[in-house]
Amino acid sequence: MISRFDETRRGLDRVIRAAFTAAAAKGLLPAAEPAAYVVEIPADPKNGDFSTNAAMVNARAMRCAPQKIAAALLECFDFGELPVERCEMAGPGFINFYMKQAWFGALAGEALEKGARYGRSDYGQNEKVMVEYVSANPTGPMHMGNARGGAIGDCLAAALEWSGHDVTREFYVNDAGNQINKFGASLSVRYMQLFEGEEKHPLPEDCYQGMDILDHAREFAKLYGDKYVNAPEEERRKALVDYALPLNIAALERDLGKYRIHYDVWFRESLLHQQGKVMAICEKLRENGYAYEKEGALWYNNIKMMSEKAEKAGKPLTEAELAELKDDVLVRANGVPTYFAADIAYHYNKFAERGFHRVINVWGADHHGHVARLKGAMDALGLDGDRLDIVLMQLVRLMKDGQPYRMSKRSGRAVTLTDLLDDVPIDAARFFFNMREPNATFDFDLDLAVQQSSENPVYYVQYAHARICSVLKLVLAEGMTEEDILHADLGLLTTPEERELCRALGQMPDEVIAAAKYYDPARMTRYAMDVAALYHKFYQNCRVKCEDSAVCAARAALCRATATVLENTLAMLKISAPEVM
Fold first, then answer.
1. What is the pTM assigned to this prediction?
2. DSSP 8-state symbol, 29
3. Which whole-number Å values give the CA distances from 291 to 222, 229, 327, 372, 423, in the listed order?
4. φ and ψ at residue 218, rounded to 5 degrees
5. Long-range contacts formed by 524-530: CB under 8 A, 24+ apart
6. Model confidence over 487-517: pLDDT tens digits?
7. Of 53, 111, 336, 482, which one has the greatest count of Cβ atoms within 10 A?
8. Which of the 8 DSSP states describes residue 398?
């Protein structure tokens, strides 16, 4: 299931390779395996529809000037049935390919033919992939980092799905360990304050300070009164956690659902502890020689693992690098396992027990120090740590009136996901959070997100779709039929604006694959904006409703193909494609 566009590019690659062989046979070039080169799409259509740097990257190895290599290749090209109109050398040795007219119309025709399936491929070969994202601490509401991680993770999962992977979306519920103990302690203090005052029960600095904790304590008190005031501390905390935690988890699921994020699996950390899997994994690490006891605790031998990996790679660690490494506690001296131990057990479960071939986690950039240790731990367990990929996501800064915006309308609370969605359309939130690569810091302009103008990127794209729908309604109302559009002669799309738009439409499957391959769903928002810009340019320069009925039908078909591409791209991003604006 290869797109016409990709089929052409692969065909050009074969022609170039064959030309190297033919040129060597004729004595025009040395007989050598050519160095890696690219066949890419030039930014400026004047430089061809495809271009290759094959001559330049082989100049040193073949000891020839790039222009001489390019000339030899040009002499030996045999395009066969490839729809190449002409090719030429440019600049320091680029070779540019210009496609025949029929090729452009065929790209639009493919989008028309495949409809809602256009953009999908079998690139992933049904590889079993898990994408874990958000996994917000269930002890409080979601913040802006979670909002961005949700949009990135969800759209990455969609790109993987569209490119032929078997995808599972997962939320890891951290309902065990220190954060739950801290949650219980915080709730307990707030509950006691309601009956005995803040002076007697001051809130420690290391407790959760959010107003949501006080809200839970108040609601709990309405249900149970002072029943737990004189109860043992452990009993009171358990009762409060058993009450508040399910409410928080339900709120996470509700708020994420509003954000159009739905998970296949909500995996609870507590199950790993209850089933003894955390301690079992610690024992397995000990058996494999990567865990040892010291001062009553069990430690993961991170230094040993990192040293072994470096040795295998042929790059032994320096003394300075070794000095920066440290081992990690798996089980404390009191017998309580650490979060790191649970995380190792969780990822062992993903690979060894549930059989995922690849696991992708979307994490905040502040977790970067944890990446190598966790991947190393997979190696220590006999798994391949390279099959665990971490997408590190930088922070978001909210901007309003040109200034950083820190607090919400609700007194004393930091801006949460629900605050954002109260003020910004969901379409805008999902689009904006995917406008930059995950590893780039991002300013979210609250004013721009609600602006109904071409300056607002999501409005600009949606308006292009609405404009297409309006044009199609007009031509259909004046006598053209769907059959006329379906069987239009797309070879009549000859203007530069038509050809450029057709070429862009043909690239959608490639863009989806690239978004999945490079873990960069921002490619899809950029692609949508590019297609919208090219459509607006086409609309301004090529009248769809014209005197020539055949040209009118061809342009209407191009409109329909463009609408299909925008609808499919926005559907991947879970953003609406309105017909009227």
1. 0.93
2. S
3. 49, 43, 9, 17, 50
4. -65, -45
5. 524/155, 524/159, 524/434, 524/569, 524/572, 524/573, 525/431, 525/434, 525/435, 525/457, 525/573, 526/435, 527/569, 528/461, 528/566, 528/569, 528/570, 528/573, 529/457, 529/460, 529/461, 530/504
6. 999 999 999 999 999 999 999 999 999 999 9
7. 111
8. E
At 262, give phi and psi (nearest 5°).
-130, 130
Compute the distance between CA of residue 153 and CA of residue 516 in angstroms, rounded to an integer: 11
- Return phi, psi of residue 382, to 5°: 85, 10
Contact 377, 385 (CB under 8 A): yes
Q: Cα(534)–Cα(504) distance, rounded to whole angstroms? A: 8
> Measuring CA to CA, how many Å separate 151 from each of 260, 436, 460, 571?
9, 11, 20, 13
Min mean pLDDT across 15-29, 170-184, 408-422, 508-522 is at 408-422
The tokens of 52 are what?
């290759």
Place of tokens 């050398």: 89
Q: At what angle do helices 144-162 and 508-517 cross, to 10 degrees?
A: 120
Q: Is the confidence at residue 113, as pLDDT, over 90?
A: yes
pLDDT of residue 239: 98
**Whole-number pLDDT of residue 467:** 97
**Cβ neighbours of 530 (radius 10 Å):** 14
CB 378 within 8 A of CB 290: no
Read off the tokens for 491: 């070879």
pLDDT for the residue 145: 84
Among residues 167, 169, 162, the alpha carbon closest in space to that of 513 is found at 162
Residue 414: the pLDDT is 66
pLDDT above 80 (res 1)? no
Query: DSSP class of residue 210?
Result: -
Q: Which residue has the tokens 């990709």?
A: 6
423/442 Cα distance (integer angstroms): 19
Average pLDDT over the chain, rounded to whole? 94
